[in-house]
UniProtKB/TrEMBL annotation:
Residues 15-75 form the DUF7054 domain. It comes from the Eukaryota. Pfam families: DUF7054 (PF23156). It comes from Pyrus ussuriensis x Pyrus communis. This is DUF7054 domain-containing protein.
Length: 129
């Protein structure tokens, strides 16, 4: 009984986890991993970039999370898997100001994964199975 109680407390501390699939634009195939719903979006981008590099995928992307945007192309879950796209931000020219890109970057920073995904999926409820 005590063992079961400890496992329950560990699960509560971990929070709900989701299986996600992140496809890096111009790369072959998605990267899949579990993410805690309390993780920050920046942590998800970081995990994706580390997995991408560990697998030796091409093209080489680098590891600066501020150079990337995470995008949810669909608003409905596919059997519990969430599908996302990871884009490298376009390089700005010296005189080219793109306030829309700056606004998108600020919107995602500091948000928890659950809050970000809820906003991106139009308040779609996340099941906690």
């Amino acid at each position: 009984m005590l063992l079961d109680k400890n496992r329950k407390n560990e699960n509560i501390a971990k929070g709900n986890r989701l299986l996600i699939s992140v496809t890096v634009v111009s790369s072959a195939g998605p990267i899949r991993f579990l993410v805690n719903e309390q993780e920050l979006v920046a942590a998800v981008i970081d995990t994706t970039l580390k997995s991408y590099a560990r697998e030796g995928r091409l093209p080489v992307l680098g590891s600066n999370i501020n150079d990337f945007l995470l995008y949810c192309p669909n608003t409905r879950p596919d059997g519990g898997v969430r599908n996302f796209m990871l884009y490298k931000k376009p390089v700005k020219m010296e005189n080219d100001e793109t306030p829309a890109a700056a606004a998108i970057t600020r919107k995602g920073s500091g948000r928890t994964w659950k809050a970000w995904i809820n906003k991106k999926s139009l308040n779609l409820k996340i099941s906690s199975h």
